[in-house]
Amino acid sequence: MSFKLVRLNPFTNAITVKKVWTLLEQEAEVSFFNSWGWISTWLNCLPDTTQLELIINYIDNQPVCCFFLGVKKGVEHKIFNKKRGYLNNTGHEKYDDLVVEYNSILCNKNIRDQQLALAINHLEDIKEFRLPISTNFSAFDRSAMLVRTISQPSYWINLTQFEQPENYLAHLSKNKRSQIKRSLKEYETQGGARIQFAKTADEAKLMFNKLESLHQQEWIKRGKEGAFAKPFFKEFHQSLIETRFEAGEIQLVRIYTDTEDIGYLYNFIFNNEVLFYQSGFSYKQSNHCRPGLISHYLTVLSCITAKYKKYNFLAGSTLYKKSLSTDSDQLDTIIIARKSFQSYIELFLRRIKTKFYPSKK
Questions:
Q1: What is the CA radius of gyration of the chain?
Q2: Which of 82, 84, 111, 189 is the most exposed place for a label (fewest CB within 10 A)?
Q3: Residues in contact with 324: Cβ distance below 8 Å, sequence separation at least 6, in sequence order
Q4: Torsion of CA 62, 65, 110, 61, to 10 degrees
Q5: Residue 262 and residue 253: Cα distance in Å, rounded?
Q6: How many Cα atoms sit within 13 Å of 114 on the Cβ side?
Q7: How far apart are CA 204 and CA 210, in angstroms?
Q8: Measured between alpha carbons, how far is residue 101 from residues 88, 142, 226, 339, 345 in Å?
Q9: What are phi and psi of 218, to 5 degrees?
Q10: Rounded to 5, what percent of the chain is helix, strand, coil?
Q11: What pTM, to 2 d.p., does this model score?
Q12: Number of H helices and number of E strands within the chain?
């Protein structure tokens, strides 16, 4: 049995990239963020000068594993210059603000960890590998590697456990039920809260633009830049809506009353699962009106009726995600460095930094 690793420029080898990715996608358990719909849009939006490679493992001349690796040289602690590789990311913030979650390689799950370890061993010029927001990997040679893991939950609702939409409210805590009922009652003074789903790509893009306006308005008010501050973010998602709406993978939701918009949700649909990705809400001074809570609540009820199996809030430990959910996954950002004098010094400096500045990892 012969092993070969190939590194391809995805912009000059587009046909091969599509052929290999779509072939291995059939054998792997992929998330929406690793599906060809997301990946092809990403490649089309990135500049063709981006330092990105498709890594392919071949066994007996047959592809068995592939993933993208963004390659970037950078300075750590203002001292060490080294080359890093980023799994299915570029390594540049202006592009990676998209946030790829449930990140993985494309490979049969029974040999996934082994194939990643093989690839890392053969990519000798890459001194550090970063696997952002990934499903856990474990098969690393820790005698040769320093492995650091940062974990966070991904909360989700098991929709299949609710035979009727009204059963979901009964599942929630007494406090959460009270908040929802009070908010719905408040919106009744404006004709009641209602829900609308985009039916065409053009309608979805209009909703997306309104979501952006509400989102940026609120985050700028909080003194932060908001998700849409970098042009690539909006450019990518406009393209994703155009190319994937007809495939049934995009869900734009409007929650509204007779007199105003309450909020908008931007979700993905993949493998009968709804993935909440972004939002924009119309906040009021009254604490009784909870636009985010009502937007998610009404959307969850509709998803139960539509017989989706999961409503996934994706990564993050925000309280509302936990309080509305039934289950959670663990997602890990894994940093793997080859053992060397430099990597041990870096580890030592990081521990000192973490000790005195615990919020900075």
A1: 22
A2: 189
A3: 155, 157, 172, 176, 293, 296, 297, 300, 313
A4: 10
A5: 11
A6: 7
A7: 10
A8: 10, 25, 19, 28, 30
A9: -70, -45
A10: 40, 30, 30
A11: 0.91
A12: 11, 13
Contact 282, 261 (CB under 8 A): yes
Are 55 and 64 in contact, with CB atoms under 8 Å apart?
A: no
CB atoms within 10 A of CB 200: 10
Structure tokens at 259: 């007199």
What residues have CB less than 8 Å from 282, skipping those under 6 apart? 214, 260, 261, 262, 263, 291
Range list of H helices, 264-318: 291-305
Number of Cα atoms under 13 Å in the Cβ half of residue 133: 17
Task: Tell me the pLDDT of the chain (361 aa) as tens digits.
Answer: 799 999 999 999 999 999 999 999 999 989 999 999 999 999 999 999 999 999 999 999 999 999 999 999 876 555 667 899 999 999 999 999 999 999 999 999 899 999 999 999 999 999 999 999 998 777 666 667 888 899 999 999 999 999 999 999 999 999 999 999 999 999 999 999 999 999 999 999 999 999 999 999 999 999 999 999 999 999 999 999 999 999 999 999 999 999 999 999 999 999 999 999 999 999 976 777 899 999 999 999 999 999 999 999 999 999 999 999 999 999 999 999 887 646 656 665 566 666 555 555 4
Distance CA 183, CA 293 (A): 9
